[in-house]
Structure to design on (124 residues):
């Protein structure tokens, strides 16, 4: 990439409801796709024709069928220098932020207890 070619990278949560509540059930997933394109168009300041939606985003919106798209979706939009915006799922980035360590307990695990019992039986 040369000096004057820049990419803009944005992570955003796109809510589909309450706008989809007034839409007939059999038109909700297509309307959610249009809402996604409109929001990305406003966010990245490009025309609707210059937005390319990744297959994973499409599968996520259509995963529960035409009647029940997800309430919101986390996306990552990357705008290239030529004005084309690629839209991807942002799950990888958000999951890495939400990593929580499991609590450490002082109780021994059942597998540890079973091993101790086996050793005692062998000693006898």
């Amino acid at each position: 990439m040369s000096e004057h070619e820049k990419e803009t990278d944005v992570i955003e949560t796109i809510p589909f409801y309450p706008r989809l509540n007034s839409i007939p059930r059999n038109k909700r997933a297509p309307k959610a796709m249009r809402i996604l394109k409109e929001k990305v168009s406003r966010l990245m300041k490009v025309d609707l024709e210059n937005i390319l939606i990744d297959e994973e985003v499409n599968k996520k919106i259509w995963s529960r069928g035409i009647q029940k798209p997800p309430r919101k979706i986390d996306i990552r939009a990357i705008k290239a220098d030529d004005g084309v915006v690629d839209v991807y799922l942002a799950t990888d980035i958000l999951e890495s932020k939400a990593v929580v360590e499991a609590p450490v307990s002082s109780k021994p695990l059942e597998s540890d207890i079973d091993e101790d019992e086996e050793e005692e039986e062998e000693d006898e």
About this structure: The helical segments are 28-44, 55-62, 91-97, 110-123.
